[in-house]
Predict the structure.
Amino acid sequence: MSDASTSKLLSGRCLCGNVTLGAKSVSPNVGACHCSMCVTWTGGPLLAVDCHQDVSLDGDSVAVFESSAWAERGFCSRCGTHLFYKIKQSGQYIVPVGLFKDDGDFVFDHQIFVDEKPQYYAFANATKNMTGAEVFAQFTAESGPE
């Protein structure tokens, strides 16, 4: 996975248009999360990109659900559009890639929580695959001791 991010402002909006989202630093690397929470939240894998900490949200219907001790999920309370997964400690936003216009710059290159992936679907893309334990180990190594 490359750490290169686009420096152009990308924007998106929820289905009803009440919430707009802007991100100045967006990774071109699309990842699929197969954890049980994402599958329950989305009805399938969450396909998302890392937008780091520089995300703006405008609109009066942004709702936040604290899904764990370390993360929260944002959505539009009017139409239900998923807006972000945010890691509380770092302020890092993981944003569903479908909110942004597909301009051909995105590359699907990694999958996480593959050990929790339901058996009824599979992707044909060659990707880096990580189990939940590997994800937590990487997160702990990158963030250091709490």
